[in-house]
Amino acid sequence: MLWFNIKDFRDDEVGAVTVDWVVLTAAIAGIAFAVLMVIAPGMRDKSNAAEPSLIAAPGLGASLVTGEVDS
């Protein structure tokens, strides 16, 4: 005789919500990663294009790029 009832085990839904959340979270993370891989090259091109303007600009922009602090 089994010490537990298989039907009761099958019908128990205590951990179902946790499994649902894990699956949904993994799906959202996967979609976010896929979107990032699609837009990353364009972001890199735009940021590289903006760098010369930031270096030439006085003030905060130049100090952020070059690491120099204006006094």
Secondary-structure map:
Elements: H1 6-11, H2 16-56, H3 60-66
Helix pairs in contact: 2-3
Brief summary:
This protein is mainly alpha-helical and 71 residues long. It has three helices and no strands. It has helices at 6-11, 16-56, 60-66.
Poorly predicted spans: none
Radius of gyration, taken over Cα atoms and rounded to an integer in Å: 27 Å
Strand content is under 5%
Tell me, briefly, the overall form. rod-shaped
Largest sheet: none
Order of helices and strands: HHH
Mean pLDDT: 78
Number of strands: 0
Secondary-structure class:
mainly alpha
Q: How many helical stretches?
A: 3
Quote the distance from N terminus to C terminus. Answer: 83 Å
Helix content: over 70%
